[in-house]
Design goal:
mainly alpha, two-stranded antiparallel ribbon, 2 domains, Arc Repressor Mutant, subunit A, single chain
């Protein structure tokens, strides 16, 4: 094998590794790319981005907010990351209920019918 062939193979290998690294970096979610150390709290826009929804929808979801500067318009509203994750887990469990689970909750079959 000549030096040129070895160099060409090495270049191809390095380019392949670089392409794989770029693919993995691009797969990282934007908030993870910006902050490898994730903050414990997020502003409203960041929380909406974290969930992949709009800020008006975030307002309607009923996720507990932190009001460090008091309550009212124009005040800083923060969302705790662990509270959002806990809310998501709770919603997953609710969505995975079976008919028997609803019976245990004393909900009748009539209550489950779609009108």
């Amino acid at each position: 094998m000549t030096n040129e062939m070895e160099k060409a193979m090495l270049d191809k290998l390095v380019l392949g590794l670089i392409e794989k690294a770029v693919e993995r970096l691009e797969a990282i979610k934007p908030w993870e790319r910006e902050n490898y150390i994730k903050p414990a709290t997020m502003k409203k826009k960041e929380a909406a981005h974290y969930l992949g929804i709009s800020t008006p929808l975030l307002d309607r979801l009923g996720i507990t907010k932190i009001h460090p500067n008091g309550v009212g318009p124009g005040r800083l509203v923060l969302y705790r990351r662990e509270t959002i994750d806990e809310w998501l887990r709770k919603k997953e469990l609710e969505d995975n209920k079976t008919f028997e689970d609803y019976l245990d909750d004393e909900i009748s079959e009539e209550d489950l019918k779609v009108n």
